[in-house]
Amino acid sequence: MSTNLNRFASAPATARPTGCDRFIAKLGAASKFSESDAQVLVDLCRDVRTIPARHDLISEGDSPHHLHIVLEGWAARYKTLEDGSRQITAFLLPGDISDLHGTILSRMDHGIVAITRARIAHVPHQVMEDLPLHRPELGRALWRATLIDEAVLRSWIVNVARRSADKRIAHLFCELHARLSVVGLVQDERFDLPLTQEVVADALGLTPVHINRMLQKLREEGLITFTSGRLTIEEFGRLSKFAGFDLNYLHPQQLRQV
Amino acid sequence: MSTNLNRFASAPATARPTGCDRFIAKLGAASKFSESDAQVLVDLCRDVRTIPARHDLISEGDSPHHLHIVLEGWAARYKTLEDGSRQITAFLLPGDISDLHGTILSRMDHGIVAITRARIAHVPHQVMEDLPLHRPELGRALWRATLIDEAVLRSWIVNVARRSADKRIAHLFCELHARLSVVGLVQDERFDLPLTQEVVADALGLTPVHINRMLQKLREEGLITFTSGRLTIEEFGRLSKFAGFDLNYLHPQQLRQV
DNA sequence: CGTTCCCTTGACACCGATCAACTCTGGTGG
DNA sequence: CCACCAGAGTTGATCGGTGTCAAGGGAACG
User: Fold this and answer.
1) How many Cα atoms are found within 13 Å in the side-chain-facing hemisphere of A106?
2) B189 near B255, Cβ under 8 Å?
3) HSE (CB half, 13 Å, CA atoms) of A197?
4) Residues 187-206, chain A: which have Cβ under 7 A from strand C?
5) What's the whole-model pTM score?
6) Any idea which fold A5-148 has?
7) Does pLDDT of A103 surpass 90?
8) What is the CATH T-level fold of the domain A153-254, as seen in this structure?
9) With helix as H, strand as E and coil as C, how does A21-41 read?
10) Is A156 on the interface with B (CB under 8 A)?
């Protein structure tokens, strides 16, 4: 197991649903909480469902009745435009939580689609609403996760609005690298990237054709290797400098302390 | 006083700080709470400070010690890139609240600048942390406001990533129209837009020159009038159709019931 | 062994950036 | 009252990044 996982994740797996430790690792990377808090998080992951690739977890307009925790696989938030094109606004990785307090709003203004086959824990909303009352530290941890999600959204705006196509791709890869390493899915600068070039294009506001050309350029320059769904970042420092990637917006303060 | 303000805003002004009713109107547009809850909100606005135009409320890297409520004037979140260019990621309008739970994160990953001279209420963070315990309805209202802010961020990603320059401008204007009308700052489809073309450019990921040309186009097509800081939307329906603007992401459900 | 999905390549068009100059306005000081 | 100035808006010429369209290739899968 990767050294990036925190102490909870390496605890003995006492009938924990697979992937649940990723969720705990992610929250634990940004916040501190007790072992018994961690057990509460495990109990949230009881109702696990498998979603096939390309199926919607929730569609635009739905009223969500529970929130989702991604245990395995990738998902993406997306909005569909008038002309039929799709814009992805976030990737949901293992350990990510989605639609926290979703029932406060009555209708989804966007959809969530499984990019790969994904195992998703469904948590009734009421459980989540009561949680901060008994577990204040977890309440803070969830707030913190929400604020980090917002910071990621802002960085996407900057990325899409200001950076050239090659840097945009590089920045996305740096973000995914950072987020995946928190949940132990990066080994030796390598990680699985189950994205087609079309999906990358939908996330970055570019066309698949241009993604293809810019990926070739990044490969030629020795910045990345990206074949058959596996991305290798040759030198993280060089790629992040090229992309203008600044880790700080992900607020990994606690991570450094662990 | 505009008919868009809700019942709280039209209550007798019992020594309420100017602009405080905008804050109450904004929260009240999306959530319901009691008159005594509203009074609690008024009490939050005791420490009001005036910020000159172009001055930072908070700079990137600062550790915020209180949260901000905009009572009058405009502000903007922004990030500065390596090359010195600036990307605005949100406009803060009268009634908007910012850095809710800011102290949960230790350092700001972006700055906030006053676009006009602005009157800002400063609320100590501890006050806000305790508020949901005694006023659960307000806690829900603040959560709801946060979720709507997130929806706006997502719509900005879509806007910047997918729409042509003219539609991008039109979409921004529709958003501002909708948000300003909630706090009573739109009359007869007209509202003050204290933005230079450069600021619009910084928000939309375009150059001032191109903003200028596209504004001319929108004017020629009779969609807007925009002179000396005052924007008029000639026909909201036509402009919003042109922009692909869908009001629903701002979740104005409660607004309709009032 | 064909089908399907994804990746790749080339030619060309166009939107928006860039650079540079000019105008207009409001404010300020002589 | 006028001269000057700074900031914002406007215009034109040209360049380049990315989109578009269309065709072909390769690998996985039935």
Assistant:
1) 8
2) no
3) 13
4) 196-198
5) 0.93
6) Jelly Rolls (2.60.120)
7) no
8) Arc Repressor Mutant, subunit A (1.10.10)
9) HHHHHHHHHHCCCCHHHHHHH
10) yes
